[in-house]
Design goal:
homodimer; alpha/beta; Aspartate Aminotransferase, domain 1; Aspartate Aminotransferase, domain 2; three-stranded antiparallel β-sheet; 14 helices; 12 strands; 44% helix; 13% strand; globular; aminotransferase (chains A, B)
């Protein structure tokens, strides 16, 4: 009586959300301080002060309809102009307001872009495993097919030789995500040059544009002075899907953008199709107050140092115990080897010690768990005892 | 190279947006005070004070992640509980938090509901002409077919006998919109009883649920003490799509809900499919700050009296000049007979006097113009001269 596909999507909550809800219920029984919830990527570091200040200033100085009224569907012109200017200063590029389409966050950015680019049901989008599980949902909604290519298990960089084999005539685009959720890896210059070379070669071979869709909500969440390369510098046919959810700790506010540089093949057609896809999916405009807020906060971020100290604390602690994981350069996740082949069983065992860690199966890369460290550092300290017990369980067994 | 369908949707701006943009350009030449822009439904009456007050209070008393963090996909529980309680008090019903799914406004409410209900590409949704043009876009996005049934040209109530002929085995649901955009009509008790009777009979005949989708962004924008009936009291299989855009003058903030009462057939399945459809379309959650804001403003509205005085001013003024239109009971539009058969040409002629009025063709009901009166009353007064000139043009011609 209802759409079977939508019913199943609604009934099968993501494994992340499932653990998160389990944690809330268990906390009610054993006490919140005894639950070690590393499940969800909900930033705990507060939004920077400029967010609060700019909201209050806007409310006090602007007329109601100037703040809360419809903006144009692509977003307020002044907002987009200011983002363009900021990006031009940061990346030495030549962007204009017309290159930006404001969205309700990264999920909207991706859904809209994929819908705009999908021409036929034979179209394929390639994703690199481990990947954010919702990519599958958004590609399916656009009416295209998902092709997953595994990253290098040593360092989680792209295996360009494997990617090459996956590209065929039906490939419309490749989604990349650096800094990566869940691995925390930042793609190196070497990876990007190699990727760009491949895509240029393959575009020529198939005589069609291959779009690189760069999903960048973690662009500013990087450590040890690492710089995240500006992808269009490496490959022209790049569309950036951005969100302020993580950089400004505003995940619930749903604010981000799609950036289509002018040198993208058929850039104006892509932009027009993006406008159409946004309209088709029911996005009238991005939330108007927060369009203005992010304009006032360009270049600002939440206090990344807090995530960095969490990263060190957890990485060092788990390493000492003998857990294995690649040291992350960005985002706020550790991607740790499961102590048994089946990560779902491993995650279940972890629950015995009230340790909530996400099995990697839905990320398309079995045998790991994702540990989100955008949490209270005190919880990390308390959790080591549980991590040790979990380790002991496997050593004694 | 991009989706043709999305490109066309992006390239063909709605006629309303087209006029609106034309007005902005023309204003730059002849001066804003000489343009009479009745094109767009962007509320001019400010949001009530409770909006500003509750935002500032939330910012000052709550932690950043309590305001800006992800809520659950269906919306914050407390918010939904409070809306349910408010509705129970107002309509004497028995709603719970679980009946509500918070959305990014009415367009999202409709897109998600239609996607959740569409089972096959043979499915049909019936809309009553004149209708909001985007209904066609959202139904198409869901993969279903649009069937339009004309309203009674005398009073714009539903012609239930015509609707009866349009319902067949493929009908999944009917979208109604009362108070109506563009006609301003509020469906009478008589209409609703007759509609409910028909739908019950037809559900039995075809042995399947027929869903009534009630799009109610103008529920509170009514005049002369009129009460908008609570549709589920008349017909159980009613799903309400609501938005705070108009009642609280927050159109840019994208905040609304889907209400699925428990007595709807397969209510839990419909709700689950709605969750799935929201996920599929890329809606992660409704904007978190404004979820809390509308909770603090339940029962409040912008100052409707201002729209009412505009309504009287414009209706009386145009009537005196000999324009013909049904007196609207709600919303903020007059739906006026075109002075020639082709309303597109009529709207073009109106432009000669810098009068921007929307031809009704895209509303599925040719021969009219929609005049939006959520505008500055001074503009209405200045516009009468132009309306008179337009009338003279036709009398002299």
């Amino acid at each position: 009586m209802v759409s079977k596909e939508m019913y199943e999507l609604g009934a099968k909550r993501s494994v992340i959300r499932d653990l998160f809800e389990y944690g809330k219920q268990k906390a009610a029984i054993v006490g919140k301080e005894n639950i070690f919830d590393f499940s969800i990527g909900n930033p705990t570091v507060p939004a920077p002060e400029c967010v609060k200040e700019s909201i209050i200033k806007l409310l006090k100085t602007k007329k109601s309809d100037e703040i809360h009224g419809y903006t144009s569907a692509q977003g307020d012109f002044e907002v987009r102009k200011n983002i363009a200017d900021y990006m031009n200063g940061k990346f030495n590029c030549q962007l204009k307001a017309e290159n930006f389409y404001m969205t309700c966050g990264a999920a909207a950015s991706l859904s809209i872009t994929l819908k705009a680019l999908t021409v036929s049901s034979e179209d394929e989008f390639i994703i690199i495993a481990p990947y954010f599980p919702e990519y599958r949902v958004f590609i399916k909604n656009a009416g295209a097919k998902v092709i997953a290519v595994p990253a290098d298990p040593e360092d989680f960089q792209i295996q360009v030789n494997l990617l090459e084999k996956a590209i065929d005539f039906h490939t419309r685009g490749i989604i990349i995500n650096s800094p990566n959720n869940p691995s925390g890896v930042v793609y190196s210059e070497k990876t990007l040059r190699s990727l760009a070379g491949l895509l240029k070669r393959k575009s020529k071979e198939y005589k069609k544009a291959l779009y690189l869709i760069s999903d960048e909500p973690y662009r500013e969440i990087v450590y040890d002075g690492i710089q995240v390369p500006y992808i269009p510098d490496y490959y022209e046919n790049t569309i950036i899907c951005y969100s302020y959810s993580k950089s400004l700790s505003l995940p619930g506010e749903r604010i981000g953008y799609i950036l289509i540089p002018s040198f993208v093949e058929n850039a104006r057609d892509v932009y027009t199709a993006v406008c159409g896809a946004g309209r088709s999916l029911g996005y009238v405009c991005a939330p108007s107050l927060f369009q203005r807020v992010i304009m006032q906060c360009l270049g600002k971020t939440s206090d990344i140092a807090l995530y960095d100290s969490n990263r060190k604390l957890l990485y060092d602690g788990l390493n000492k115990m003998g857990y294995r994981c690649v040291r992350p350069d960005g985002a706020f996740y550790l991607f740790v080897r499961s102590l048994e082949e089946n990560a779902v069983d491993f995650s279940e065992n972890a629950k015995k010690f009230n340790l909530l860690i996400v099995p990697s199966d839905d990320f398309g890369c079995p045998g790991y768990v994702r540990i989100s460290y955008c949490v209270d550092p005190e919880m990390i300290k308390r959790s080591f005892y549980a991590f040790q017990k979990l380790k002991d369980l496997y050593q004694s067994g």
